[in-house]
């Protein structure tokens, strides 16, 4: 005797993609595309199919699907780390964007493979595409030598990069306008009559160099800008930023502003200034970059350029799955916004 619940609610019996397609009144291929977030399926149809999947308890047979499609349904996310730049997965910006990517992949029934070795390196197993362990690669940042990235992307597909629109790139990007972000910082400091600016960060990194250039371009109308501004190259870790700031301001504050390459550096710099008795923002204004979650809660709250990691992570995944579905590549440039708080005295 059949279960009355099955008669009252036939959705419960749906256990295959074909049954989901029948209930939705669409082709099985449409269900497959909807679950992969293809742009070839309308948002309304995707929503209806995902609701049916959720209600039915349908689960994709990953092994069978991989054999059928010759795909792993895994996306590799690469954050190239080294002892030189002293960045770590625990960096708040990385944590936020990885979490966003992971959530977006999970929503589309994909797995995430996290790697710290660039796929063009000699590290064993670094190239997950060539070994068929991943269907696509998302690379966070363009590093010091974007030519290596461009060369890899030219011969490997699909590759999407969180980064800047730079000459010679052979891959689609998602990211903010770093040059504009730096310009917004420089213009804001000028509006506060802060002209003796210190930049903290390694400008050999592509995005960091653009932030620096944008700020310096905005300050260029200032007389003697070359003599008044200072660039201090350093790794991305907080300890280096704290040490460099203490050494620079130990004899007092001649410079009246700090623009840091990211928020972690800016927060460490503010702590060093506080320990020296240098007031922020009265003596030295401080501005960071990224708008990590902590930026609004340090004291004083940090002025910073926002990079929307929540939107960015989802955009990276959507773009990647579009490429996997054979759709044309496209760039996504997120809004670039200066978030003004107390650390620069402008709030």
Question: How would you characterize this protein structure?
Answer:
- The chain is of the alpha/beta class.
- It has 3 domains: 4-59, lambda repressor-like DNA-binding domains (434 Repressor (Amino-terminal Domain), Orthogonal Bundle); 74-175 and 309-334, Rossmann fold (3-Layer(aba) Sandwich); 178-307 and 338-344, Response regulator (Rossmann fold).
- The chain is built from 13 helices and 12 strands.
- The chain has a 6-stranded parallel sheet with strand order 2-1-3-4-5-11, covered by helices on one side. Strands 7-6-8-9-10-12 form a 6-stranded mixed sheet, with helices on both faces.
- Mean pLDDT is 86; it is low at 1-11.
Give the structure's gist in a few sentences.
The protein has 347 residues and is an alpha/beta fold.
Provide the descriptors you would attach to this structure in a database record.
3 domains, 434 Repressor (Amino-terminal Domain), 347 residues, Rossmann fold, six-stranded mixed beta sheet, alpha/beta, single chain
Largest sheet: 6 strands, parallel
CATH class of the largest domain: Alpha Beta
- Contiguous low-pLDDT stretches (5 residues minimum) are 1-11
Strand portion, in percent?
Answer: 5-15%
> Could you tell me how far the N terminus lies from the C terminus, measured between alpha carbons in angstroms?
71 Å
CATH architecture of the largest domain: 3-Layer(aba) Sandwich
The average pLDDT is 86
Protein structure class? alpha/beta
**How many distinct beta strands?**
12
Number of continuous helical runs? 13
Morphology call: elongated
The CATH superfamily of the largest domain is identified as: Response regulator
Please tell me how large the radius of gyration is: 24 Å
- Overall tally of domains: 3
CATH topology of the largest domain: Rossmann fold
Portion in helices? 40-55%
H and E order: HHHHHEHEEHEEHEHHEHEHEEHEE
Strand order of the largest sheet: 2-1-3-4-5-11
